[in-house]
Each structure stands twice: as structure tokens, then as C-alpha cells.
Amino acid sequence: MKAKKLQISDDASNQHLSVLLNASKAISEAADYATLLQALLTIIIKHAGAQRVFLIKSQGDSLILEARAQTNTNGVMVEHVHCEANWDDLPKSFISSAIQTKKLLYANVGQQSTPYDLDPYFQRFSVSTAICLPIIKQNQLIAVFYIELWEHDKLFSDEYLNVLTLLTAHAATTIEAARLQNAIDEVNQQRLKLERALRLADTSLALGEQISRTGSWRWELHNNTLVCSEEFCNILDLDPQRRTISFADFAACIHPEDKKSVLDRIRYAVQKETAINVEYRVLKADGSVLYLTGQGCPVFDSDKLVDYVGTVNDVTARRAAENALRVAQDDLARVCRITTIGQLTSSIAHEINQPLMSIVANAGAGLRWLHRAEPDLQQVSASLQSIATEGQRAGQIVQSLRTLTKNTKALLSKLDIHDVLKCIVAIARREIERRNVSLELHLDAKLSQIRGDMVQLQQVMLNLVMNAIEAMSEISNRPRVLTISTFTKEDQVIFIQVEDTGPGISDEIKDHLFDAFYTTKKDGMGMGLAICHSIVEMHGGELSAVLRQPVGSIFSFAIPLVKD
Ligand SMILES: Nc1ncnc2c1ncn2[C@@H]1O[C@H](COP(=O)(O)OP(=O)(O)O)[C@@H](O)[C@H]1O
Ligand SMILES: [Mg+2]
């Protein structure tokens, strides 16, 4: 490698100065990195009359070909490529040497012998002169310019090299700034993308909340405020634009009748650092009432309870549907009761007729005692007493029929289950006799006070008794016996058992016994046992059916006893 020949034309200095000024202008005016590269490479290649100029950037351990300019018949073509440097297309030994020394390297490859003559690239292509100019900033290699001339009569002048050095020093700052700007732009693009994704997620969440009528919130315990979603504000009738409310604002939304219990439960959960689960109503400004459920999970920071996050659900529609279902179930239960009672009319008529006959007989007797020459007032009084007792007996039956057919809401009260059984036996007695069934009553339980709904329990007993009678109607080769018994267990629960000597329950029937509308009878409705099952469940028991030995079946359930 040798110093290059000087070929300075007369107006060379002016020309170089104008190149520098042009380059400076182009560099400072470049709107973006690509324009900057285009301007820089064009000036370098044109000014030297070179064939090829490469800008190779160092990136970590690798070299990246950033841009390439080539002179061809159409002029100068600049490409911004940004790919790994391809050593088939560049003199590796020459460029590596410049990178190592961080110094400008110049070689008249085609004209003198140089250390790079054996470089495969120089072997393949007839390059006349090559320059490699490292761009250094704060002693760090940022990039290299590789420039080559193909024409043997042309050389790089010293001025050109000086201009080049000045240009690259200037370019170093700009390339670095542009690179940083590029990086910033990329980060900004990423940020915009993320923001867009976030906005999209936010919109989807808001839409999801709106559709499912679910609001979300975060309760920051340190300042006692709730950061809440738009839907949360919508549900609670707050301004949807308000995203932060105080806990007191929230508490003010709760229906006055629910407020104390809800706040107590929340306070208890916070104290125990456990999940919040509450149900409450909200009175809206238009007077309507919403039914809400709220769930919250505690959030800890280094074992310290800091926040609660959770949701609020508007379950008003579900509640309305549940209520409608309950009303429908009540109506159905009533229809079933009336249907069963309809089957018992002759039995009931008989049951009422008996006291009426007795009243008539007693009245006759009383009158006779009164109309005697010497009226026996004691006997008259006894007859009147009997009339009153029998009247009450008839009245009670009528009363229990009225309650059984009325559509009343379930009313839990303390009652004697034996009274329920006796009442049902009274209503069904005649039917039992008519069907040739013998009744055995074993009301052995010493304690029989329970908490329950009289009408519902009567319905259970009526269904079980009627089923037992109906099951035995086909039996002709053995006695038809209906046994109703009660007994207690450890003074905690009372068992009520209805046994029959019918056909028993086959495996196939057993699986569907308590299903709604399951019946094996021609005129059956299949609702009796389904209703019994849910009533017994509501009373804290479970209705079960087993085979009776040697024949028949046993239906039984247990209800907790209440003590005085
Ligand atoms: N004591 C019983 N013995 C045998 N089978 C019974 C007995 N009680 C109920 N079953 C069976 O259970 C079915 C459902 O009873 P239920 O729900 O009261 O409806 P329904 O009496 O209208 O058929 C009956 O059709 C019958 O097949
Ligand atoms: Mg039935």
C-alpha cells in the first residue's frame, strides 16, 4: 500500500468546498434516515466518480450492510438494504483490516501489489482503487464506508480524501442521531400499536361488561376509594364519567334496608382478609329497584392487604325469572292439592257429615230433655256441649280444606307434626275405608314440635297417603295395610314414615320417582313426589323411598325437632 497520486485540478478547492457545503446542506435537511443515506451516498459516489459505495454498520458482533450506491448507465442508484454483509460482494480482508485499525485504508489494488491482492473479491473483480473509511464516534466504530473505483486512470485525490474524512465525521453524528431517531420511531410505533391494542381490549371489556351487566372495581384501602368501570357506574346509577368514587359514595347507593348488613359483611371480610360476597339492592333515581351481587378478592402486597378487586352483577332479570318460576311452582303445587282433594270429595263429605249428623242428633235429644214436664237442664247442657264440640270438628275440617286450596305463601312457624298427620287422616279416612285399606297409626314420637309450613306438610302427607292407597288398589291376594308412624332419633329429628303393602318400587321406576311429570298411572300427573321432595328439602330433610319387607314400599323423611 502506498501514498496515492495527487491529481488536483485548478478549481479543485472550490469544487471540494461546494461538495462539502452541498453535503452539509443535504445532511441537515434530510427529513429521515433513508433520505440522509440517499444524499450522502450520492454525493460521495458522484464526487469521486466511483463505481460503488457501501455503508456497512457494526451491530454487536456482526456487520450489517446498510446501504449501497452504484453508478451505471442510468446514473447513480442508491438502495437502502439493511441486511447481513455478504462477503461474496465485498473484500473481507480489506474491510476487516480497516475496522481493526479504525483508520482510513487506501489500496491501488489493480495497480500495485497490496496485502489484499489475494482477497477473493479482488481476485474476481477488476477493482482499480479501494477505500475503506471507518466512522468513529467516541472511539466506537459506528460504520464503515467502502468506496471503489474501476477505471485505472482514475485516482482519489488527497482533497477528496480530506473531504471524505470531514464528511464522514459530520455524517457520524447524523447517522447516529438518525439511528437513534429510527429506534425512537420504532419504539413509538410499538407504543402506538400497544395503545391501540389496549384501547381495543378496553372497548371489548367495556362491551363485555355492558352485555353481561357486570361492572368491575378496585377498592384502594389506603385512601378508601373505588376505581371503577363505566358499567359499574351505570349499574349503580352514578355518573359514568366518574371513574373514582369514595367508599361512602358507594355505600350511599345501597338500599337503606340492606345497607347495615352489607357493610357489616364487608367490614368482616376486610377484618378477616377474606373474599367479599354480598347481595344487595339499589334504589335508582326513577324509583326502580335493582338486585345486585358483589364479589371481591383481597389483593396483598408483601403479605399486607392493600386492595380488593371485584365485580358487581345486575341479577334483577334473573331474580324476576326466579320469582316467576317460584310463583309457577306454587300454582302447580296448589293445582295438585286441589286435584288430590277432588279425588277425596266423598271422603270429605262423609267426614263433615258425621259431625253434622251428630249435631242434629244432639239437638233433638237436647230439645227432648228441655220439653219434659220437668226439664233436665243438665242433660240439655251436655247436649249443647256435644253440639259445640262436633261443630268445631266440622269447622276444623272445613278450615283445613280452605287453607289447602288457598294460594298462600310458605309460612314457617312452630307446629306439631302429629296435628298435620291427624288432619290428613281425617280428610282421607273415608277414602281409606272405601278402598278396603286398613290404617295403622303409630305416632310414637314423644317430641313432635318442628318448624315448618302447615299447608305444605299436609300436602306431603296427602300425596304419600294417596300414592300408598293407589299402589295397593290392584292387590287382592293379601291385606292392604297403610301404616303411618313417627319416631325420634336422639331427640334431634323426627322420622315420618308411610308404609304400604303394594307392589313396591321397581329399579326402573326408582330412578325417576322424584322427576317432575313422571307417572305410571293412567290419570296421574306425576307431580306429587316431585313437589314432596322439594317441600321436604325446604324443611331441612330428604325424602327417600325403599322396598318394604316382605312386600310393599316405605316412603320416609326426617325433620329437625325444635325444643321449647
Ligand atoms: N307407594 C308407592 N308404591 C309404588 N309406586 C309408587 C308409590 N308412590 C309413587 N309410586 C310411583 O311413582 C310415580 C310418581 O308418583 P307421583 O309423583 O305421586 O305421581 P302420580 O301419583 O301422579 O303418578 C307413580 O306413578 C308410581 O309409579
Ligand atoms: Mg301421586
Automatic annotation (TrEMBL):
Keywords: ATP-binding, Coiled coil, Kinase, Nucleotide-binding, Phosphoprotein, Transferase, Two-component regulatory system
Catalysed conversion reaction: ATP + protein L-histidine = ADP + protein N-phospho-L-histidine
Listed Pfam families: GAF_2 (PF13185), HATPase_c (PF02518), HisKA (PF00512), PAS_3 (PF08447)
Chain ranges of the Histidine kinase domain: 347-563
Any GO MF annotation of the entry: phosphorelay sensor kinase activity
Domain of life assignment: Bacteria
Annotated coiled-coil segments of the chain: 170-200
Domain PAC as annotated: residue spans: 276-327
PROSITE patterns (UniProt xref): HIS_KIN, PAC
Cytoplasm as UniProt keyword: no
Alphabetical list of SMART domains matching this protein: GAF, HATPase_c, HisKA, PAC
Keyword tRNA-binding: no
EC number from the UniProt entry: 2.7.13.3
Cited PANTHER family: PEROXIDE STRESS-ACTIVATED HISTIDINE KINASE MAK3 (PTHR43065:SF10), SENSOR HISTIDINE KINASE (PTHR43065)
Protein known as: histidine kinase
Source organism of this protein record: Rheinheimera pacifica
